[in-house]
Amino acid sequence: MPRISAAHEQQVRERIIRAAVEVFAEKGYHRATIADVVRRSGLSVGAIYTHFKGKDALFLQSCDLISGQGLDELAIRLAPLTATADKLMAAAAYYVETIDEFEGAPGQVGLVRAWAEAQEEPEVREMLARRREQLVGAALMLLHEGVARGELPAWLDVDGFARGFLGLLDGLLLQRIEAGEGYRPEESVRRARAILDVLLAAARVEQPAAATA
What we know:
The chain is mostly helical and 213 residues long. The protein has two domains: 6-62, Arc Repressor Mutant, subunit A, CATH 1.10.10; 69-204, Tetracycline Repressor, domain 2. Helices cover 71% and strands 2% of the residues. It is built from ten helices and two strands, in the order H-H-H-H-H-H-E-E-H-H-H-H. The chain has helices spanning 6-31, 34-41, 45-51, 55-68, 71-78, 84-97, 111-118, 122-148, 158-179, 185-201, and strands spanning 101-102, 105-106. It has a two-stranded antiparallel sheet with strand order 1-2. The protein is elongated, with a radius of gyration of 20 Å. The model has no long low-confidence stretch (mean pLDDT 86).
């Protein structure tokens, strides 16, 4: 019997995960079944269980794929830009671009189902936390660079803004669902730009006095 290469095994695994991403996006966690993944992937039940213990493991891996996709592409898009404002806006626009779809597969909106399961599933919650830290790390680099270049205020709470702005971007996922067929990506970009405009304008003012109780 010919030996199956590690590369082939990885291809099969990725095929299963991508099929699972589509199935969970369409049916949700509770309605989706392993049989659905079998049909979508074109593989056998045995092939699925060779790589994954069951639906829970598949769901986690599919969410992990969604959460990590796009960071390499984002780095490529930001590379030719110099101004911090341009980089921040490009990053926000790319986030919106990948809400519905990423390279022909369901985009970040699929993570809404993961958030719904996170309360009861520690592994899903940990995956979402890893995603958050990855995105925060990318945002921190952009913001610190902007402060060093004098394009952002030196008094900026960089960590606080990074986490707050990412919370806003994730909120756009919910607005996308609420909008249904009336969703307009350009409106999401406009909302993100409005927040960034305030940040950039703040570079020209003194540090605000701390709020008192």
